[in-house]
């Protein structure tokens, strides 16, 4: 493929991605939402939002991948964890925190912008069918994701359930999952704030959210634990627009910056580090 042909294809893809109310971005967000769960906690009969997670598998086990503080400060302390099996559906999975085993990064003396803030929550085998029977997939972390693409546009999506976008009362909780096409503020990097022993294990990615856009929450409380995805958009052999998606991290901290939010995420190296915890 020559340079001009490549440029033409990329321009066509970019036009689809950047279009107002883009049908392509909407379709990508819907597909990623199938991997995403919005946590709700019940305490003394009252319901409240509690963060976001991603359905993942590793070998023969299944997990929620989320931020460690979501588990340690909210889910773990609740009476019950409730998870909508389909968005805006009354059908929910209710699970006791006692049924879940956490495999996470070392817990710091205090949570801050450097974490480490990532954990895998093992789902009991008898509970996995609650998701698969309604068509919810688990992202396979034990499979290498590769696809040779001659010409593609790389985009980044952040999934989450901002508390401000849901409908919550003491007796009712209806979270709203959002898939946001975001801008990278930095590439992958390590933190000099972590101890030498941890610095090589955990990486970070910062993304910017334009909170002036329609339907974007001004605060991203509830998004912690949401998946950060690399989405590669390309033309198939039949000329149709296709996508290839890779789970690249999770959100865990926010910093307001005027009309934008900086969301700090752990990157793919951090996911690998927490997988190693399964064998500790």
Write up what this structure looks like:
It contains six helices and 17 strands. It has 280 residues and is an alpha+beta fold. The model has no long low-confidence stretch (mean pLDDT 85). The chain is globular, with a radius of gyration of 19 Å. The strands form three sheets. Strands 1, 2, 3, 4, 5, 6, 7 and 8 form an eight-stranded mixed sheet that branches. The longest helix is centred in the N-terminal third of the chain and has 16 residues, at 3-18.
Please sum up the structure shown:
It is built from 6 helices and 17 strands.
Query: Rg, please?
Result: 19 Å
Low-pLDDT stretches: none
What is the count of helical runs? 6
Oligomer: single chain
- Look at the structure and give the mean pLDDT: 85
Query: What structural category do the secondary elements indicate?
Result: alpha+beta
Q: How many strand units?
A: 17
Shape: globular
> What is the beta-strand fraction?
35-45%
Give a quick account of the main beta sheet: strands, pairing sense, barrel closure: 8 strands, mixed
Helical fraction: 10-25%
Straight-line distance between termini: 48 Å
Order of secondary-structure elements: HHEEEHEEEEHEEEEEEHEEEEH
Summary tags:
280 residues, alpha+beta, 8-stranded mixed beta sheet, 7-stranded antiparallel beta sheet, 17 strands, globular
